[in-house]
Amino acid sequence: MTPVIEVKNLLAGYLPGVNILNGANLYANKGELIGIIGPNGAGKSTLLKAIFGLVNVRDGSISLNGEDITGLKANKLVAKGVGFVPQNNNVFPSLTIEENLQMGIYQDPSHFDQRLEFVVDIFGELGKRLKQRAGSLSGGERQMVAMGRALMMDPQVLLLDEPSAGLSPVRQDEAFIRVSDINKAGVTTIMVEQNARRCLQISDRGYVLDQGVDAVEGSGRELMDDPKVVELYLGSLGA
Ligand SMILES: Nc1ncnc2c1ncn2[C@@H]1O[C@H](COP(=O)(O)OP(=O)(O)O)[C@@H](O)[C@H]1O
Ligand SMILES: [Mg+2]
Q1: What distances in angstroms separate CA 79 from CA 7, 24, 107, 142, 144, one per listed residue?
Q2: Ligand with the closest atom to the CA of 22
């Protein structure tokens, strides 16, 4: 089976001569929920940004269903079915929920109604408040708008950068449930998370990224039970 996304030996960085990704590998098969955990500064966000064409790739490759997409710009990637939800500033606060969702499908507006139905199936509360400004929503609700926006183009793969960050514990639980729901609706999903244990619990497979390299890979269960992963990356904090 050809993976939906395959990242091979990726070298990438922001400043000349300084690589943040030092040969990162990753794949996601159709329908999988993939979790990426690892210490602060490991390059997790950089990896998602590199897949989404926002960071210069210096070597290695990224493919989507076997097609090389290395170096393509974000708007092209969206058209091809890659969705990305950055960690911060991921909604337009002065626009309504509905307008935010429209922004997600500006490349294909004729499918707005159909896709809105899909999004509202998952995030029912958004459907009741379409005319409300995103800036007036809670952090958890904004996160739903951001995920909803990325789902408007019917992505083949959804990249999520820390969907639970900054939320209260109850809202974090809800965010994880929603990510599961999105995945169960058939969307291949790659999620970066600080909340490592919670992330691995719902992931089919996971990767530990450390210093820009995929240090450990396995099923969510395997990673949670791996003494080394527990000691180095989950620790007592995640218990
Ligand atoms: N825009 C940027 N310009 C320069 N360096 C950056 C930029 N964004 C992140 N970095 C650096 O890249 C490294 C990895 O960051 P990041 O990918 O955000 O890690 P993580 O998401 O795993 O916490 C850090 O050392 C960070 O300082
Ligand atoms: Mg990050």
Answers
A1: 19, 25, 7, 23, 21
A2: 1
